[in-house]
């Protein structure tokens, strides 16, 4: 892959972000509070969120809230988009903040200031020849819907989401060709607080609440898909899942079976419903064995069947290795999931195991199962970056990570996988979703902002910026 390329000429190269991790301006433009606004910063974020009784209130005496300012894309979007254009981006994945459009979530009419902001962003992208790829809900539902309704446990939230989705699909039908409904929807199976808007309380039946919340999201997503096809038949709208191949720790059939069960539940439960349009048999058995009784209203299953997505957007950071019984010492770190440590893999600064071949495995598994186009909308390396005396950031480790994953993508394309595009996660440094840190950097663009709140927010190009520009210009042929 040094002289020729297997990537199609219309391949969608770009970068990915989320509103709550980059915009800032958390109280500007009549924006309401969303879940990300009340998440404390620091390595203990996920532990704090997993504790029963998290109340979705801001407590500045105890915590910091880096998402409030983030990297101030709200005021600096023109500068950032110009840098994306300099790299040659064909697409830019971003999300719309639900609370910019409906500040409390249950209003009848949208907030014009919020709608106008995204008009300006989309216009700026188009000025530079960049197509937006828009996630409608990316870990930022209105806090009011959490406190008043219990998040996605409540069926009423379907109505509020449908109103929000219709508002943005109507407004931007001529400006956005590529949509996704819910970011990493299957994360709700392991960490419901960010995507489903609730934490599991003592004595609560986890899977009853989670499965019901996901069912409501499936119905809401299907309604958005149908409406998108109505307002712009040329648009494409997909789902978005975390995908992590699950390896058995060894050839013990017990461990192989356990790994297969874990893979089907995490990787395929949501995908099967949203792509195939029906609950799979394994999900029905799982829910029965967990004692879950889903409340499915008349017409729900027909709605899900009619609202099948056009493509699968997915994040890939790592694989996962499992065994039926594991000790605390054996556990690995991961993207909201933990298996056991794989002795054949190295890990990032945050303990996420690095497995480029796993991406090829994932792509083949998904395409064989679903036979719809795939779109890698998150993949990247969170690392500590050092700014040299001359201002440069020599992130060769990031280049190596991305090179190996792009090579794996090329191999999967040659295997026959239909891949639409690739948007590297955190193309500009932003606030980490899992830890609320600035120091966990993913970007090609360095942002002078630090965990203690200091920094100028000045942007600068890392070594990887120039490398990725060359990759895009050569359509993936030059990865040197």
TrEMBL record:
Cellular component aspect of the GO annotation: cytosol
State if Hydrolase is listed as a keyword.
yes
- What keywords appear on the UniProt entry? Glycosidase, Hydrolase
Q: Name one GO biological process term.
A: carbohydrate catabolic process
The annotated active site, in chain numbering, is 378 (nucleophile)
Gene3D superfamilies associated with the record: Glycosidases (3.20.20.80)
Read off the InterPro entries from this record: GH (IPR017853), GH_1_N_CS (IPR033132), Glyco_hydro_1 (IPR001360), Glyco_hydro_1_AS (IPR018120)
Pfam families reported for this sequence:
Glyco_hydro_1
The molecular function terms in GO held by this entry are: beta-glucosidase activity
Q: Which NCBIfam families match?
A: PRK09589.1, PRK09593.1, PRK09852.1
**According to its UniProt record, which protein family does this protein belong to?**
Belongs to the glycosyl hydrolase 1 family.
Spell out the protein name for this chain.
6-phospho-beta-glucosidase
Recite the lineage of the species.
Answer: Bacteria, Bacillati, Bacillota, Bacilli, Bacillales
């Amino acid at each position: 892959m040094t002289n020729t390329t297997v990537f199609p000429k219309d391949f969608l190269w770009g970068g990915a972000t989320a509103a709550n991790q980059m915009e800032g301006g958390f109280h500007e433009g009549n924006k309401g509070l969303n879940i990300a606004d009340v998440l404390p910063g620091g390595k203990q974020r996920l532990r704090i969120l997993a504790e029963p009784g998290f109340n979705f209130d801001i407590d500045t005496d105890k915590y910091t809230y880096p998402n409030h300012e983030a990297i101030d894309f709200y005021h600096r979007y023109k500068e950032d988009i110009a840098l994306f254009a300099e790299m040659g981006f064909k697409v830019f994945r971003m999300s719309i903040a639900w609370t910019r459009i409906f500040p409390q979530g249950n209003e009848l009419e949208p907030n014009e200031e919020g709608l106008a902001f995204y008009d300006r962003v989309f216009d700026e992208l188009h000025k530079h020849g960049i197509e937006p790829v828009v996630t409608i809900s990316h870990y930022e539902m209105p806090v009011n819907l959490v406190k008043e309704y219990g998040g996605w446990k409540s069926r009423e939230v379907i109505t509020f989401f449908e109103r929000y989705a219709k508002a943005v699909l109507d407004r931007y039908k001529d400006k956005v060709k590529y949509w996704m409904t819910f970011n990493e929807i299957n994360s709700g199976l392991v960490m419901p607080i960010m995507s489903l808007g609730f934490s599991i309380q003592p004595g609560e039946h986890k899977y009853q609440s989670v499965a019901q919340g996901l069912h409501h999201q499936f119905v809401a997503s299907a309604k958005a898909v149908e409406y998108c096809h109505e307002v712009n038949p040329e648009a494409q709208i997909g789902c978005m899942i975390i995908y992590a191949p699950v390896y058995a720790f060894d050839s013990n059939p017990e461990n192989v079976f356990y790994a297969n069960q874990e893979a089907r539940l995490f990787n395929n439960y949501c995908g099967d419903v949203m792509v195939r349009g029906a609950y799979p048999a394994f999900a029905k058995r799982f829910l029965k064995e967990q004692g879950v009784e889903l409340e499915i209203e008349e017409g729900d299953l027909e709605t899900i069947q009619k609202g099948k997505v056009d493509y699968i957007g997915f994040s890939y950071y790592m694989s996962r290795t499992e065994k039926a019984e594991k000790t605390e010492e054996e556990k690995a770190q991961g993207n909201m999931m933990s298996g056991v440590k794989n002795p054949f893999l190295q890990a990032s600064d945050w303990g996420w195991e690095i497995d480029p071949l796993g991406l090829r495995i994932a792509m083949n598994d998904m395409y064989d199962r679903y036979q719809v186009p795939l779109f890698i909308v998150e993949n990247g390396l969170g690392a500590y970056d050092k700014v040299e005396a001359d201002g440069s950031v020599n992130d060769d480790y990031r280049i190596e990570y991305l090179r190996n994953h792009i090579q794996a993508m090329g191999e999967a394309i040659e295997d026959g996988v239909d891949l639409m595009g690739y948007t590297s996660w955190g193309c500009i440094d932003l606030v980490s979703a899992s830890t609320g840190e600035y120091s966990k950097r993913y970007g090609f663009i360095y942002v002078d902002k630090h965990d203690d709140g200091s920094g100028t927010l000045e942007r600068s190009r890392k070594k990887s910026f120039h490398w990725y520009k060359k990759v895009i210009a050569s359509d993936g042929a030059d990865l040197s």
